[in-house]
Sequence to fold (67 residues):
Amino acid sequence: MVIIIKQLEVIAVSSNISWTTEAEAKLKEIPFFVRPAARKKIEKFAQDQGVSEITVDIYVLAKKQFG
Fold:
């Protein structure tokens, strides 16, 4: 049950966040098999920061936080 709630929450986050073309290009540098998880973490980071669009700057900040 908790997993389903978290999945629904992530979907809601994804639908409210937009990505710039440049940030999408940076995301594509991540291996394909971890890209969906990375996208969710970056979008959650952006939401927590009150940001509705992911730019390269937001991408870099999120990447620094997650290592």
Notes: Strands lie at 18-19, 53-54. Residues 2-16 form the longest helix (15 residues). Residues 1-14 have pLDDT under 50 and may be disordered.
